[in-house]
Design goal:
499 residues, Immunoglobulin-like, 2 domains, 9-stranded mixed β-sheet, 8-stranded parallel beta barrel, globular
């Protein structure tokens, strides 16, 4: 307990220093913005950043979140506001939503029809009314998800909606009495491989009939997790590869869902996904995916939370897109400060700039309590809580849109900052995200290689500022260099247009 308290104190010190330097940082940024000549004084530890337009990496497909704990989200009196805060233009502008292939749908084995809406119910029914209260908990989850996904599609025209299966229907498992994967409880291949594949395709088809065309589906969620109590299903890589090839792809094709992509394997830890996928038949996998929690070795020593140092996968991905489909800080102690925000920023940087992921999806969009597992929490009085992880997510999601491509960014004369750059090849818009976990503001000289730009706009997240606080536009100097300030213990995003 003493060690934990000391670590929290150490993490809090940079925040105090950042607050004490706020006035100085603002004055410095203003000085740079109003400079009349090239002789602006800079600190000795000036960082040099070079952006090279013509050297490119992965295409970005978007940022997203799971639709909350479905029933609390659906029942929340603030659900419309929450939708806007996550996917709306004035919110995070997320472009991906993750759903769940719920295990409890009625399923007609003969016809392959899955019923995703309880008979006689309507998605706009009053959650405080008598008819809703008559529904079972499973039925509330079913209709709740249908409302969330339909409203998200109608209001925000999200380009990517996908769904994952935590577990097959229980009667299809080796131990039908347990929803967990304990004791290697998983799909009973002797009887139910075809049935589960048709269940997934029936679910996908039923949503298509409601106007929701899933971009992709995943038959597994953390298939190696045989320890937790929640709904899960054990898979090994051999059987999963066989299931995709022999059962799922044919079932989707038979249902006319030939364009629906398959995601796999969504292991909890990035390193585990590397091991799992490397030995698996991936011929019918369209999107390679893992989650962003700490590695198994960290778990053994009691560590939880966001993976701060994921490693690039060692197997050839065959030019298939790589997605991070779930992550959060599941450490248990709520931290809405910039300390928690910088943990997310570091993790996002590592996955995007080092592991080359094309999509980054947070675990929960909202919770009815305050918890680091969600981007939006709820206070005891019903008001919404926005931790700094929400603000940090916006530093990326509001400035990097589907179709952007990561391009080369080099950092010299500094070992503290983390930088990554993204561009729209069509419009010429570009964004530079700079993370500074250090206690001092840093002055940077920014050089553009292979392109020019006239002005840079910037917004930032620190402990004390308003959400996505704008700074004055920064003009290029006569020598072609931008001089920019990166605030202490914060994240700043610069945006511009190719000249």
């Amino acid at each position: 307990m003493l060690t934990m308290k000391l670590s929290h104190l150490i993490l809090f010190v940079p925040v105090l220093l950042a607050l004490s330097c706020k006035k100085e940082n603002v004055q410095l940024q203003q000085k740079l913005s109003n400079a009349k000549n090239d002789a602006v004084e800079v600190t000795k530890d000036t960082a040099n950043i070079t952006l090279s337009w013509n050297k490119t990496y992965q295409k970005i497909e978007g940022f997203g979140a799971f639709g909350g704990r479905i029933t609390p989200f659906f029942e929340s009196p603030k659900r419309d506001s929450i939708m806007n805060y996550l996917w709306g233009e004035t919110g995070l502008q997320l472009t991906i939503i993750r759903g769940k292939i719920i295990r409890s749908y009625p399923f007609d084995k003969q016809s392959g029809v899955v019923t995703i809406k309880p008979a006689g119910s309507d998605i706009d029914m009053d959650v405080n009314g008598a008819e809703y209260k008559k529904l079972t908990e499973d039925q509330k989850e079913q209709i709740g998800q249908l409302w969330i996904l339909k409203k998200a599609k109608e209001r925000y025209q999200l380009p990517i909606m996908f769904a994952s299966a935590w577990t097959p229907p229980l009667y299809m498992k080796t131990n039908p009495d347990s929803e967990s994967a304990k004791n290697f409880n998983g799909l009973n291949f002797k009887c139910c491989s075809t049935d589960f594949a048709r269940y997934i395709s029936g679910f996908t088809k039923a949503y298509q009939n409601e106007g929701i065309n899933f971009y992709a589906i995943s038959p597994t969620n953390e298939p190696e997790n045989i320890f937790s109590d929640w709904d899960a299903s054990y898979w090994d890589s051999k059987h999963l590869g066989e299931f995709l090839t022999n059962n799922l792809r044919p079932a989707l094709n038979d249902a006319g869902l030939t364009s629906t992509k398959i995601i796999s394997s969504e292991n909890a830890a990035w390193g585990t996904a590397n091991s799992f996928l490397s030995g698996m038949d991936k011929s019918n996998v369209d999107i390679l995916a893992g989650h962003g929690y700490v590695e198994i070795g960290d778990l053994i020593f009691g560590k939880r939370g966001l993976n701060q140092n994921p490693k690039p996968w060692t197997f050839s991905t065959g030019n298939k897109p790589v997605w991070l489909t779930e992550t959060s800080d599941d450490g248990g102690t709520y931290d809405g400060t910039i300390t928690g925000g910088l943990k997310l920023a570091t993790s996002m940087h590592k996955f995007l700039a080092e592991c080359n992921v094309s999509a980054f999806v947070y675990w929960l969009g909202m919770l009815a309590v305050k918890n680091n597992e969600s981007l939006i929490g709820t206070n005891s009085d019903g008001s919404l809580e926005f931790p700094k992880t929400y603000d940090v997510m916006g530093q990326f999601s509001k400035a990097i849109h589907p179709g952007y491509v990561r391009f080369d960014s080099k950092l010299q004369n500094n070992s503290t900052l983390k930088i990554s750059a993204y561009k729209d090849p069509v419009s010429g818009k570009f964004s530079l995200v700079v993370i500074n976990p250090g206690q001092k503001a840093v002055i940077c000289k920014l050089r553009l290689d292979g392109f020019t730009a006239g002005l840079l706009n910037a917004y930032q997240t620190t402990e004390s500022n308003t959400r996505w606080q704008n700074s004055a536009p920064i003009a290029v100097k006569s020598n072609g260099i931008f001089e920019i300030m990166v605030p202490a213990t914060g994240v700043i995003t610069f945006t511009g247009n190719k000249g």
